[in-house]
Backbone:
């Protein structure tokens, strides 16, 4: 239980058997937490291990834990067997994710400013409009988007995905950036402008330090969701603009051994998200909670 | 402690800051109002053009007979597509699948996430490492995770689950371990389990942040006053956590209801696992029935609006407290 810490003042004031019991409980809960962590990590751990096995060792029953390690799966991912390079889809994914993230920030920051520091009238209505677009299933707009893209020659074009991913992440970004901008002390802003500080000074000296963590969290979330997206990428891209998640599905074949290869590909494609998420765990929380948690 | 609602409002991170006196825009005249609105407009217009206009297109096409494989028969049919939808057992099945899938995944991962968050909200050796282990599932690309579950875990002949069963049975000298084909014997459970694995860390992170924003001085005071662990959870922790539970459930619902990757990869919508997004996808992408797919899309949107109305009401408390 969250509150059963052995070091609380109340516990220290009581007799020692209670303290010892609390400490034992604490240790048991610590072990339980470790066990849960391992259980949740296990499927990924298995994928990681399998990715370093040969195809023959990967598909055994019972599982071979001590099989020889090899980079064969990774070499296959980078095209050693088929000659298909993973770089075009990876670069497409990077382009779509980074470009849409930049566009999201460019659009969301001023919008959030107009919803917090100098709020427009009925700013809550605007907030709910943004959030409600997030609740509309993307699949409902898929067909018209497809038809428009087809008729304007935008099919199989990575910039179409950039636009769609921007619309996917913009509502989250507006909510997050607003919650960070709402922390900007308006009185200080006004005092600064009365004292003759120009807008650039105000932005750099007062606004930026408060908002920078928000920008980082927004960028992280926006990048992750864009990188992960499959439905639009599958329907709207073909050969040239195909992204990494679509590429990943191509490793599954109807015949032959492919488990180690798929695991290696899955690890490689998840790597950017894993690295970014591990490095910025607190930003991840801020982003996921739309900035409600700081 | 007798008024948990007050502690709940007072210590929420959002309440600490009140917007300063907001001068009424109307006093500044129309030019001031537009100057205020200007920064908002690009984002607003972008969202309307990219998300609302296509939906108008969907609405129009939903009243049309339009199959890409038979373009000559294109024309308006009124409500025919909708009539067909409501008599189609597949759509009804997709509807109930979506509800069951979403409710199961959100509730189970919320409960597991709460348990894990409570475990993580204490000091113990290696807490940071355990947190990293726990959030890994959420950071695996969804389609990669679906492939992992399908081929490396569920596969009947070489998946880890059946492999482990073989191994455990062999410990007892038996070579007749059960080897069920998980994806065909319990397809819904298989999809749900993989999604719960992915979404529990998400719930845990939000709830853990909620727990850590809880005022410790009040908890200490309650403990000094002799409150037990359960009382503290019931009357202090839980009321404080309620809004975080609501937020986590809402966001989880928004994402899980739209799930496509897991259904598409694990079962290809077979065996009663096709949810609404997958149904729309197949009608459009495989049957090329544009009119029918649009009608399905419109139905999905109407249902989403119903769900969203309830969901938004709970989120609105996040904003209301600020405008008080």
Residues:
């Amino acid at each position: 239980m969250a509150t059963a810490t052995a070091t609380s003042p109340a516990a220290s004031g009581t007799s020692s058997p209670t303290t010892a019991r609390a400490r034992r409980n604490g240790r048991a809960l610590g072990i339980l937490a470790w066990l849960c962590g391992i259980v949740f990590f296990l499927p990924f751990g298995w994928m990681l291990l399998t990715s370093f096995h040969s195809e023959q060792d990967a598909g055994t029953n019972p599982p071979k834990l001590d099989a020889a390690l090899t980079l064969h799966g990774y070499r296959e991912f980078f095209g050693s067997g088929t000659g298909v390079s993973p770089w075009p889809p990876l670069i497409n994914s990077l382009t779509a994710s980074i470009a849409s993230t930049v566009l999201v920030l460019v659009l969301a920051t001023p919008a959030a400013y107009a919803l917090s520091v100098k709020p427009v009238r009925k700013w809550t209505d605007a907030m709910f409009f943004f959030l409600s677009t997030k609740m509309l299933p993307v699949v409902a707009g898929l067909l018209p988007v497809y038809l428009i893209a087809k008729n304007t020659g935008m099919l199989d074009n990575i910039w179409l995905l950039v636009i769609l991913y921007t619309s996917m992440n913009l509502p989250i970004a507006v909510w997050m950036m607003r919650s960070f901008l709402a922390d900007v002390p308006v009185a200080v802003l006004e005092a600064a402008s009365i004292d003759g500080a120009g807008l650039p000074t105000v932005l750099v000296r007062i606004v930026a330090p408060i908002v920078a963590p928000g920008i980082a969290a927004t960028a992280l979330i926006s990048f992750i969701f864009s990188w992960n997206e499959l439905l639009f990428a599958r329907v709207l891209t073909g050969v040239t603009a195909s992204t990494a998640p679509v590429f990943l599905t191509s490793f599954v074949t109807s015949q032959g051994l492919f488990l180690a290869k798929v695991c290696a590909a899955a690890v490689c494609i998840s790597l950017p998200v894993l690295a970014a998420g591990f490095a910025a765990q607190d930003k991840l929380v801020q982003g996921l909670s739309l900035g409600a948690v700081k | 402690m007798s008024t948990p609602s007050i502690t709940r409002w007072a210590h929420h991170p959002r309440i600490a800051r009140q917007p300063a006196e907001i001068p009424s825009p109307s006093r500044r005249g129309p030019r001031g109002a537009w100057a205020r609105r200007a920064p908002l407009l690009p984002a607003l217009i972008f969202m309307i053009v990219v998300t609302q206009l296509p939906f108008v297109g969907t609405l129009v096409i939903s009243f049309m007979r339009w199959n890409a494989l038979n373009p000559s028969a294109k024309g308006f049919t009124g409500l025919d597509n909708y009539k067909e939808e409501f008599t189609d057992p597949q759509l009804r099945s997709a509807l109930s699948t979506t509800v069951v899938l979403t409710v199961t995944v959100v509730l189970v991962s919320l409960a597991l996430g709460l348990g894990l968050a409570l475990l993580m909200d204490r000091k113990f050796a290696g807490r940071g490492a355990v947190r990293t282990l726990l959030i890994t599932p959420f950071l695996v690309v969804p389609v990669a995770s679906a492939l992992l579950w399908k081929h490396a875990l569920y596969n009947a002949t070489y998946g880890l689950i059946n492999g482990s069963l073989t191994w455990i049975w062999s410990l007892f000298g038996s070579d007749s371990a059960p080897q069920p084909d998980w994806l065909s014997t319990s397809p819904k459970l298989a999809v749900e389990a993989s999604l719960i694995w992915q979404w529990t860390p998400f719930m845990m992170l939000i709830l853990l942040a909620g727990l850590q924003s809880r005022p410790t001085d009040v908890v200490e005071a309650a403990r000094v006053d002799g409150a037990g662990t359960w009382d503290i959870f019931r009357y202090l922790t839980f009321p404080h956590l309620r809004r975080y539970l609501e937020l986590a459930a809402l966001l989880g619902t928004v994402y899980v209801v739209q799930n496509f990757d897991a259904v598409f990869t694990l079962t290809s919508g077979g065996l009663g696992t096709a949810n609404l997004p997958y149904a729309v996808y197949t009608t459009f992408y495989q049957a090329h029935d544009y009119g029918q797919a649009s009608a399905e899309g419109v139905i999905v949107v109407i249902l989403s609006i119903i769900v969203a109305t309830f969901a938004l009401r709970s989120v609105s408390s996040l904003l209301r407290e600020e405008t008080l």
